[in-house]
Amino acid sequence: MIRADTEPVSRRDFLKTLAKAGIGAALGLTGLKSALDASASGRVKDTVWQIDPHLCIQCGRCGKHCILRPSAVKCVHAYDVCGYCDLCGGYFSQTARAYTTGAENRLCPVSAIKRTYIEDPFFQYTIDEKLCVGCAKCVAGCSAFGNGSLFLQIRHDRCANCNSCSAARECPAGAISRVSRKSPYILKRGGPRE
Questions:
Q1: CB 3.0–4.6 Å: which of 26, 37, 56, 91 could bond 175 by disulfide?
Q2: In this structure, is residue 2 part of a structural domain?
Q3: How far apart are alpha carbons 82 and 77 in whole angstroms?
Q4: Cα–Cα distance between 26 and 177 in angstroms, integer?
Q5: What is the value of pTM for the model shown?
Q6: Looking at residues 96-119, what average pLDDT do you find?
Q7: d(Cα 6, Cα 151) in Å, to the nearest integer?
């Protein structure tokens, strides 16, 4: 309904008013978005990305899809689960011609697993996390031919804690999720006490 006591609005004035309203709405939405982002970043600070070793299928995608190089995904060794085997399925390639420490016989492509003699027939295997690229080859080998003492974790001192973790998006098993920073590592049953 048009009121008789008002002057007609010109097209130019109407468009100016509309533009001002649009800018005001956009600024309001920007302010709302900033408030939501601040709220979300508060949640991000309280949580960290982590791999559930019981859901992990050792596909190696998390190491490939992490935005960091080398990846924040690292192999971890649960020493209390390990059998300290002479023929470790996580250390030796299944196609090894000899069970020696030669690179051609090892499963790890970057030599991140160190083998140390303890006493016959036991060896200790340690992971050099600086070298580890999170490929999961050792984890798959240990799970298939050993006790399953090797598993993957996202190391929080390396992780960028992205809002949307690309490794989590690519995980076919849904093994990567956010957990509380207060209890950061999901441990393998019988695994290390960190």
A1: 56
A2: no
A3: 8
A4: 34
A5: 0.71
A6: 89
A7: 76
